[in-house]
Amino acid sequence: MLKNKPLIAAPGSRRTTAALATLLAGGLALTACSGSDAPQTESGDSTTAAVENPYPMADVSGTVRGAGATSQKMFIEDTVGPALHPDGIELEYQATGSAKGKAAFVGKQADFASTDVPLSERATKDAQQRCEGNTAWHIPMVLSPVAVAYRLDGVDQEINLPARVVASIFAGNVTHWDDPRIAKANEGVKLPKTPIKVVYRGDQSGTSEIFQRFLAAATDGAWKPQGPSFPTGVGLGANGSAGVADQAASENGSITYTATPFTKPTPQLKAAKVDFGFGPVEPSSKSVTEALKGVKYQGKGKNMIVDADSLFADAAEGTYPLALTTYEVVCSKGYGEETRDKVKNVLYTMLANQQGDYADKGYVPLTGEMKTKVEEAIGAIGA
After folding, report:
1. Which interval of the chain is the signal sequence (predicted)?
2. Which of 21, 41, 343, 362 falls between 20 and 30 A from 75, CA-CA?
């Protein structure tokens, strides 16, 4: 049985009352997200209208397990889990990082994996076996800019950083904020002679892999990517998207890379405007959407693997190609009907909630042809 479900139940409804009672009892089963606040209506307005989910939601309940990328952790805990919970679906999401999430999916410890980097050739074969001989699909769902985020006390202006200078900073070749290479890109800004403190992901991370591909493109291949592991020779490591943001925010002069949503709750951090060769560009929903207009895919059919390298190669004025695409890796078939329906409900809920203040939180709503392709892929997931 299919039904359209409100994303936010109408105040005073039976759905709202049941959900509130459950949340107050601490029943929200988001394993990666303990301690988060329950979702709030706008400005305490008790008359907020229900927002209708336009997708065909199956009438199922029970637990669905996801694991992987930390980049979508806040979206899962603040929005997706609470939206599913009133209808009896407990979303248990382990934000363990992309690599561990893919391993959990292949090992049948998760119903879907979330990853910022596609499955390897070996993992693709293992996933096919896990999916009862069927192909695993990458569905691009949660997009955000990767911010080059920094803390520099006493400088109110946003800092401009050419891409090659960003690479030099993370390689340890630019070590102070008043370096002439930074000053040249920031005329009129009084830069302090503050040491630069690099903060990198200490755990295996899809964000690290994407960021290093950007550094390689910025240096014409001089930077040698090391996959999901970031080089440890310069700076200090911290785990998770929130971990690097918190570490960088804690000490003046720090710089890091992380999904933009993790810079929003941290007022000490600012996101640099990165110059990809056509002038400095702010990381935003608009600038990433512009970069994605000509997006190319490496996967076939409904296996929608974004060609990240082509985004860097096709950079143009006003575009921010340093974008993080978090894929939900699912079985195209091989779940069984109940698990299939729960997975599809999760994906439809993620897609339906990309509205309102979603972009203000640092995410990039899916639009146009990419959104249409994602809708078709979700609909085609079989048992």
Report:
1. 1-21
2. 21
